[in-house]
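Submission sheet (multi-component)
Chains listed below:
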Amino acid sequence: MKKTIITVLGKDTVGIIAKVCTYLAENHCNILDISQTVTGGYFNMMMIADLSGTDKGILDVQKELAAVGEEIGVRIHVQNEEIFDMMHRI
Amino acid sequence: MINIHEVFETNQMIEREHFDVRTITLGISLLDCIDSDLHSMCRKISSKIDTLAKDLVSTGDAIGNEFGIPIVNKRISVTPVSLIGGSACRTPGDFAEIAKTLDECAVRAGVNFIGGYSALVSKGMTESDELLIRSIPEALAKTERVCSSVNVGSTKQGINMDAVRLMGEMIHETAVLTKHRDSLGCAKLVVFCNAPDDNPFMAGAFHGVTEPDTVINVGVSGPGVVKAAIAACRDSDFGTLCETIKKTAFKITRVGQLVAQEASSRLGVPFGICDLSLAPTPAIGDSVADILKEIGVEQPGAPGTTAALALLNDQVKKGGLMASSYVGGLSGAFIPVSEDQGMIEAVECGALSLEKLEAMTCVCSVGLDMIAVPGDTTPATLSGIIADEMAIGMINQKTTAVRLIPVIGKKVGDTVEFGGLLGHAPVMPVNGFGCGRFVNRGGRIPAPVHAFKN
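Outcome: structure written.
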C-alpha cells in the first residue's frame, strides 16, 4: 500500500471534496480516511489515500491535483505519509 | 492512523516556520585517486565525483517533493585534499589546480558547495599540508564553490601554534585576494579544533579518513520551529521550556532521519549520520537569536545569553539523540552573525560583542562564525583570536571553529553584503592590544591533562 496524505486548504466553496474524489476515483486511488474542519470560512481537509491502484507516480498525482486545486481556488498538497509517521509516531 | 492535527502541525512547520532539511551531503573518498601525476589525478577525481554525484541533486529534489519538505542544499564533501595531493603537488599552485578540478565537478553535479579542501594538522604539518594551507588564498580566490577547512587542534593532541600563526596569515591573504568582493573568500574558510569527520554543513564539511568510500550525511535545521514551539508556552518554567525544545528537536530530527534513509537507499550509498543543528538563515523567522529572545533575554549578548544558549544547545542534542539511529556532525545550535538577522540586529544595537560571542561558543556547537572584522586587523591578531577559540575547544572537549572575515577597506560601523545564505554583516570591533609575541613563539601547546583517559 502506498499511503498518501492529501491536504486541501482554502476558502470554503461547493464541490471541493467532489472534485478531489472524482480525480482520485478516475485514477483508481482508494480513499482510506477523510477528516475536515471549516473555521472562519476556511476549509481544511485531510485525506488518506492509497495510490497503489494507479500507474501514476506521486509526483504526477501532485501536479495534477495541484491543477485541480487551482481550478477551484484551493491549495492541494500530496505528500508521502511516512513524513507524518516518522514525526508523530515512535 | 495519522490525524488532521498532526498533518497540519507538520505542514505549518514547513510553510510558516521555515522547517527544512538544510543539506544532503554526499561524502566521497578520494584516497583511490592518488597519483604522482597531477593531471592524471585530477582526471581520476573528476571521473569519480561525476559518476557518484550525478543523481544527487535530482534524487534530493524528488525526495523533497514527495515528502513536501524543502531540501535546500545538496552538497559534496571529499577526503582532505592535503592527504591526496602529496605526491603530485610540488607548489601551492599545484594544489590550487585540484581546487579548480573540484569546482568544476561541483558545477557539473549542480551542487552549490564542495567541501574538503582541507588539512588536518593538530600536531604537525607535513610538507603537503603546508603547501595546501599556503594555496588556500589562491584556491578560494579562483573558485566559486570550493570550501576549505583546517583542523589545527584537538583535545587529544593539543594545539599546533605554527598552524594557528599560518592560518592568521592565510585568512588575511584570502581577504586581500578577494577584496573586490568584500573579502568573500574568507566566508569559505574555517579553522577547527576537534573537527568532526562527518559534518555535513559547509564550510567545514570534509570526508574523514575513518569514513567508508561514500556516505550520505544529512543536516536538518529549524530554528523557526523551536521558536514557535516555545512561544506557545511563554513564561513557563525551565522544566517546561526544556521539555518543549526537546520534543520539537525530536520531531525535526525524525524527518532528517527519514530523508537520510531515503537518500541512502535511492542513491545506493550508506547512511552516515543525521546532524541536527539549528542553523539560521538571513530570512525573517529563521533565527537562533530569536529563540534566545523568546527564552527571555532582550537581545543576544544581554546577561543570561550564555545560559540560555547552553540550555538550548543541550536540549536540542537530547531531543535529537533519540530520534536518529546515528547522530553526528556538529549537532546543536549555530550562532553565525551574518547569517542570522537577529544576531545582526544585536550587533548593530551594541548588545553583542566579539568577546560575548566567544563566551557563547563555550556552550554551543561551533564557534566564532561569519563575523566581519576591520580589514586592518593584523594576521597576528587573527591568530590570537583563533588560538583562544581553539583553546576553548581543546579544554572543553568540543568542536570549535573560527570563520572570520577581515574585510579589506572596511572599518567598524561599515556593513558588508555577502548575499544569499551568507547574509550581511556589520563590521565588529576587535581588541586592539597586541598578541604578536605570543603567536610568534612557535611550536605547539601540549595536549591537556584530560587527553590522557586510557
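Remark: The longest helix of chain A spans residues 58-72.
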